[in-house]
Amino acid sequence: MNDFVHVDEKWFYLTKVKRKYYVYDDEEVAARTVKSKSFITKVMFLAAVARPRYDYHAKKMWDGKVGVWPFVQVAPALRSSKNRPKGTPVTVPVTVDSKVYFDAVVNKVVPAILAKFPGGRDRGNVSIQQDNASPHKCVTTELLHAQGVRGIVVVNQPPNSPDFNVLDLGFFNSIQSLQYQKATRSIEELIDAVESAFYELPADTLAKTFVITLQNVMEKSIEIHGSNEYKLPHMRKDASKYLTVMCITSSAMLLATRAH
Predict the structure, then answer these.
(1) How large is the average pLDDT for residues 154-170?
(2) Domains in the chain: how many in total?
(3) What range defines the domain where residue 83 resides?
């Protein structure tokens, strides 16, 4: 589990489709206008995380955050508007296909893993865990080797398998909750909000998703012989189970530090 990097994409929106407002009887509700919810500005992000741990090579705690990257490009505006003339460089979302995804993994995810993953030159192979979506099939261990990448292998989740990706099991939701607390009015502000939310979240949040949520999902899947038809029970992520695991981990790190 410590050698796996969980990778996945998610849409992040400029604003919620539905919002609650608490107002007085004589107060007007804030008006929001858009043609339809499909016109709400959104950007797809690629995120990569691993289990937080103590980095013996760097002699410090590692938060497990490999990185988060938006799928956008700067292109000239096709039409004039009240905000800018035609031809002005603007940031626009990019459609994610196999070529775009492969480029993101090779030029963003892989360098970030090599730069941040604990262990230095002494670490073994690092596994990139991704789902079996069509654009992902272009990223294989063989193709990474052909690009000169060593020490990194690719693991695809089988179709219709239980979701063992911590990004989908709660960490993406944590990022989104924090992102919605930041006022954004443009794509650039949305990108800044998502990136800052990703790095502002405490490593504790990611650790809990690994130690408790992922562990419970695996246990439930084993109970029903590998099926994904399970109902995830409510989990008290601050309860004794998490604290016990963290205490054991902290004790092991302390002993290892003293040994060095």
Answers:
(1) 88
(2) 1
(3) 4-259
